[in-house]
Amino acid sequence: MVDHLAISVGSESVVAEPTARLRAAAVPILDGPRRTGEGYYGSHVPDPEGSRIELAESVRGVEAAAGGRGLARRVDHECDVLAA
Q1: In this model, does residue 78 exceed pLDDT 60?
Q2: Is the pLDDT of residue 9 over 90?
């Protein structure tokens, strides 16, 4: 079972800005944005079906935080997270 999907967006501002836009649109923010005890910066938002999506500064940080548990795959793709 997948716990959540983490998307590496490359920088703190690309985590914080879409999170703020989602919050302003009344989308519930599950966590963050914040720097975790493991040292990565991210926020968690729900998708329309309630699954957890993480916007992460770096997937490498998420991989390290997982302590080798699970699978993290990096996808290099530029996109506007809130594109219609």
Answers
A1: no
A2: no
The pLDDT-based confidence of 4 (bands split at 50, 70, 90) is confident
Please give the angle made by the CA atoms of 34, 49 and 7, to the nearest 5 degrees: 40
What's the distance, CA 17 to chain centroid?
Answer: 12
Q: 5-65: what fold? A: 2,3-Dihydroxybiphenyl 1,2-Dioxygenase; domain 1 (3.10.180)
3-state secondary structure of 73: coil
User: If you count them, how many residues does the chain have?
Assistant: 84
Spatial CA neighbour of 36 closest among 65, 68, 73, 72: 65
DSSP-based three-state secondary structure for 60: helix
